[in-house]
């Protein structure tokens, strides 16, 4: 594949992986917790490097999963103790993220990992970091990591589809019929952590928030069906990558920044043109009602 094709494929995988997972967060009204986890996993990545002295994908995923679940546990603990939920997220998010930034400053000179890379990512470098087995170049490491995380996330959703659906819309009913609501909650946090780490090299800790939240929010405006929303969220995420890359090439700007901006553009279109929830449709319904009255 060409250099551009690898970048486009990586961007699409980021969009689909984060979009599908993020749609669940939007439905559960946990979007800001995704923001927290997408930043605090930096501590998990740095911790994994300090333990293994390697930026290999598996240790990073394990470290991110541990810190992602730790973030959710700490937020829940503070919330249960009387701290407002948004304040709890802010305290945990800033503390763990700041610790990760401090630690990364000690190792940034020795490896390809620094604050700028962690915050913004650089998808243009993805095609050069390839996975080689027995002398055979299998393509960018990020593509394999994103593909593996996407496959894992989809498998979990399909395997626990009913449990995830009922615990999302009616957790009390789910508890009453024996659905492990707490387990599913922390499993989702682990999925978010994996998705964030897999997308880290491409869009960084800041812009991955857009990929986690905006496609799901856009899909929420387009459908009222759970399964269709997950599909649409992934499609919108991939479309954002295509539109963003095209805009980045056209205007010679940051690719990851353009992709994140494209998510906002598509959300605006959904916000205006959604058949049921769009502003234009609401205006026409209101106008029609006034005429009938």
UniProtKB/TrEMBL annotation:
<dbReference type="GO" id="GO:0043190">
    <property type="term" value="C:ATP-binding cassette (ABC) transporter complex"/>
</dbReference>
<feature type="transmembrane region" description="Helical">
    <location>
        <begin position="87"/>
        <end position="107"/>
    </location>
</feature>
<keyword id="KW-0472">Membrane</keyword>
<feature type="transmembrane region" description="Helical">
    <location>
        <begin position="6"/>
        <end position="26"/>
    </location>
</feature>
<protein>
    <submittedName>
        <fullName>Iron ABC transporter</fullName>
    </submittedName>
</protein>
<keyword id="KW-1133">Transmembrane helix</keyword>
<dbReference type="InterPro" id="IPR001626">
    <property type="entry name" value="ABC_TroCD"/>
</dbReference>
<feature type="transmembrane region" description="Helical">
    <location>
        <begin position="33"/>
        <end position="51"/>
    </location>
</feature>
<feature type="transmembrane region" description="Helical">
    <location>
        <begin position="142"/>
        <end position="161"/>
    </location>
</feature>
<feature type="transmembrane region" description="Helical">
    <location>
        <begin position="254"/>
        <end position="273"/>
    </location>
</feature>
<keyword id="KW-0813">Transport</keyword>
<feature type="transmembrane region" description="Helical">
    <location>
        <begin position="57"/>
        <end position="75"/>
    </location>
</feature>
<dbReference type="InterPro" id="IPR037294">
    <property type="entry name" value="ABC_BtuC-like"/>
</dbReference>
<keyword id="KW-0812">Transmembrane</keyword>
<dbReference type="GO" id="GO:0055085">
    <property type="term" value="P:transmembrane transport"/>
</dbReference>
<feature type="transmembrane region" description="Helical">
    <location>
        <begin position="229"/>
        <end position="248"/>
    </location>
</feature>
<feature type="transmembrane region" description="Helical">
    <location>
        <begin position="203"/>
        <end position="222"/>
    </location>
</feature>
<dbReference type="GO" id="GO:0010043">
    <property type="term" value="P:response to zinc ion"/>
</dbReference>
<keyword id="KW-1003">Cell membrane</keyword>
<comment type="similarity">
    <text>Belongs to the ABC-3 integral membrane protein family.</text>
</comment>
<dbReference type="Pfam" id="PF00950">
    <property type="entry name" value="ABC-3"/>
</dbReference>
<feature type="transmembrane region" description="Helical">
    <location>
        <begin position="173"/>
        <end position="197"/>
    </location>
</feature>
């Amino acid at each position: 594949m060409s250099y551009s094709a690898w970048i486009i494929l990586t961007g699409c995988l980021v969009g689909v992986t984060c979009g599908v997972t993020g749609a669940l967060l939007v439905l559960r009204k946990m979007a800001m917790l995704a923001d927290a986890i997408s930043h605090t996993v930096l501590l998990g990545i740095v911790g994994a490097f300090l333990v293994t002295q390697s930026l290999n994908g598996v240790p990073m995923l394990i470290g991110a999963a541990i810190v992602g679940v730790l973030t959710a546990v700490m937020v829940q603990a503070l919330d249960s103790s009387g701290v407002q939920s948004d304040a709890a997220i802010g305290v945990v998010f800033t503390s763990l993220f700041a610790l990760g930034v401090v630690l990364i400053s000690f190792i940034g000179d020795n490896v390809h990992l620094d604050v700028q890379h962690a915050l913004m990512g650089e998808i243009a470098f993805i095609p050069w970091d390839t996975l080689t087995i027995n002398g055979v170049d299998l393509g960018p490491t990020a593509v394999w990591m994103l593909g593996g995380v996407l496959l894992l996330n989809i498998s979990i959703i399909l395997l626990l589809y009913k449990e995830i659906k009922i615990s999302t819309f009616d957790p009390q009913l789910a508890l009453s019929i024996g659905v492990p609501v707490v387990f599913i909650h922390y499993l989702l946090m682990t999925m978010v952590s994996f998705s964030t780490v897999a997308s880290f090299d491409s869009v960084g800790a800041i812009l991955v928030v857009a990929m986690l939240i905006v496609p799901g929010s856009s899909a929420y405006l387009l459908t009222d069906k759970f399964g269709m929303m997950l599909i649409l969220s992934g499609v919108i995420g991939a479309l954002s990558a295509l539109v963003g890359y095209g805009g980045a090439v056209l205007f010679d700007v940051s690719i990851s920044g353009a992709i994140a901006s494209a998510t906002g553009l598509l959300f605006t279109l959904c916000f205006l043109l959604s058949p049921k929830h769009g502003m234009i449709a609401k205006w026409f319904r209101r106008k029609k009602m006034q005429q009938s009255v």
